Amino acid sequence: MADQSPANGPGRSFGGVADAYDRGRPSYPREAAAWLAGTDGCTVLEVGAGTGKLTKVLADLGHDVHATEPDPALLELLKRDLPDVPVTGAPAEDLPLPDASIDVVVCAQAFHWFDHERALPEIARVLRPGGRLALVWNVPDTRIPWVRRLGELLGTQEQQEDPAGAVVTSPLFGFVDEATFKHWQVVDRHSIRDLALSRSNVATLPEAEREARLAEVVAFYDDFGRGMDGMQLPYLARCFRATVVREETAGAAEEEPEGERDPMTDTISDGTDTDMLLIDFR
After folding, report:
1. What is 106-157 written as a DSSP string?
2. In the structure, what pLDDT confidence band is assigned to residue 93 with cuts at 50, 70 and 90?
3. Lowest-pLDDT range of 34-48, 117-131, 234-248, 267-281
């Protein structure tokens, strides 16, 4: 997906629907957050944190989390719900932190909006040697027919085959690992409308078209017959992580066994992870 980071681009459309975004968007499974940032407490910077869906999970894992979010409306909701988390209204392209001060930089559902040519050097700058960039996207599991139909109503854009491609090709980061975690979001007649409204392609429609699209989504829910009990919407949390590359650490690499250093455990990994759940996307 092309970068769309300007202030008037679709990536900045969420502030106008901040409450719907907060009510309608799913959270992230604890297992995914642990894979992204580790389970031993460390210093985490979440970039493009939105209303704090992933922020809360990371904080509950015991990490020292600092969150940045350029949209004032989203940022206010994050501060309201997570008053103990330090927050800054800053974009990924201009991070307000010192060099080599962060163990892990995490980005949930926002990396595709960044100007990668500017954001990746900034992320690499604030990471400590051996630090990690971790990305996650919640993707509806459209292998299920009714979820695929809902996606058609929402006008969901096709998921990129390689959403972390900018990291893969960047000389600033090493090998990119990938894992996927399945989870569910319980939605009802109201929250499915909020979910639809929180999509940038719906939020930016002219008012009449937007209301018509929302009415279609609610009618789909009613026809599906779940009523007041709600229904479970299946998601795949698609996760990526890569270690920052620094020239000053090149000599140290000769003294250590081959593999990737984990900044949370200070151990060397050979790239295998027996606890990783992998799902083939088709």
Report:
1. EEES-GGGS-HHHHHHHHHHHEEEEEEEEEEEEEE-TTSHHHHHHHHHHTPP
2. very high
3. 267-281
Which structure tokens are listed for 214? 């929302």
Let me know: does 50 contact 58? Beta carbons within 8 Å.
no
Residue 246: Cβ-neighbour burial (10 angstroms; 0-12, 13-18, 19+): middle
Q: What is the spatial distance between Cα 87 and Cα 3, in angstroms, rounded to a whole number?
A: 24
Radius of gyration of the chain (CA): 19
The secondary structure of residue 257, as a DSSP letter, is: -
CA distance 167 to 272: 20
Q: Which has more confidence, 67 or 159?
A: 67
Strand-pair partners of 100:
none
Please give the order of strands across the beta sheet that includes 87-88: 87-88, 64-68, 43-47, 102-108, 127-140, 231-243, 177-187
**Which residue spans within 159-210 are E strands per DSSP?**
177-187
Strand partners, 241: 134, 177
pLDDT digits (tens, 9 = 90+) for 132-177: 999 999 999 989 998 999 988 887 554 566 899 999 999 999 999 9
Give the Å distances, CA to CA, from 273 to 222, 270, 276. Answer: 42, 9, 5
The Cα 151–Cα 108 span in angstroms is 20
- Provide the mean pLDDT of the chain: 82
CA distance 239 to 56: 17
Instruction: Encode pLDDT of 179-227 as tens digits.
Output: 999 999 999 889 999 899 888 788 888 889 989 899 999 999 888 766 5
- Residue 199: name the closest of 214, 181, 186 by CA: 214
d(CA 31, CA 225): 32
Helix pair 30-37, 53-60: axis angle to 10 deg: 70
